[in-house]
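Quick one:
INPUT:
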């Protein structure tokens, strides 16, 4: 599948997509390809001019696949010190159908910056590979205080380790707090966890503390587990 956000108006693949189509896949005149606009529509098209910089096509048909889940799933997570792990999580959350991802800047964050363009490229590649019509939104890194103040959802959840990572009476199992069809936000902290101030700030804003199970998880694994659980609860 190829990505062309303005395919209806241009009938031409972007330069990078054209190069991959023509030089790597060796697509020729008359070959049919699938194109997504990233906004919910997949087009079947016929190549009319296989140029390596501006591959031209003719639209044959279009479809708008049904969403793979109900509700709206937003994972807000502190980036890992090893950026490869965050990138892996973005790729996998895109594949399973998470709608939004926000890197969080927290008090104990070991990584203070992320490469927004690289995360976008990883997201685009994962969306195409998994044949999805709609791209998730990858937000810039946001201080947790600003995120809590600005973000609204029907189910607000925070996974912290202040009371231990295993299930305990002070936390709810994540699956018990996800209402099918609702918008949900799950906060995942850094390797050093959220600070006490950050946890209290979230709780005061209406976030419920949740457990992701009895196993101790890495930050990026916790993000993926949270996203997958929310998707399954909304199927």
């Amino acid at each position: 599948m190829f990505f062309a956000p303005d395919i209806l108006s241009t009938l031409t693949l972007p330069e990078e997509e054209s190069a991959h189509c023509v030089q790597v896949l060796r697509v020729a005149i008359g070959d049919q390809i699938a194109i997504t606009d990233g906004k919910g529509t997949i087009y079947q098209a016929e190549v009319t001019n296989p140029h390596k910089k501006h591959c031209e096509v003719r639209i044959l048909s279009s479809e708008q696949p049904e969403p793979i889940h109900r509700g709206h799933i937003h994972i807000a997570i502190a980036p890992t010190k090893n950026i490869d792990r965050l990138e892996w999580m973005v790729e996998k959350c895109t594949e399973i159908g998470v709608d939004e991802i926000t890197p969080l800047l927290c008090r104990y964050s070991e990584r203070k910056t992320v490469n927004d363009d690289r995360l976008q490229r990883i997201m685009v590649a994962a969306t195409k590979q998994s044949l999805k019509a709609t791209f998730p939104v990858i937000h810039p890194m946001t201080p947790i205080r600003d995120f809590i103040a600005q973000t609204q959802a029907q189910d607000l959840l925070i996974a912290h380790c202040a009371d231990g990572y295993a299930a305990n009476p002070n936390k709810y199992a994540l699956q018990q707090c996800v209402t099918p069809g609702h918008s949900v936000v799950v906060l995942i902290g850094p390797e050093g966890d959220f600070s006490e101030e950050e946890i209290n700030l979230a709780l005061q804003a209406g976030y419920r503390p949740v457990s992701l199970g009895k196993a101790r998880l890495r930050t990026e694994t916790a993000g993926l587990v949270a996203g997958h659980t929310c998707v399954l609860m909304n199927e």
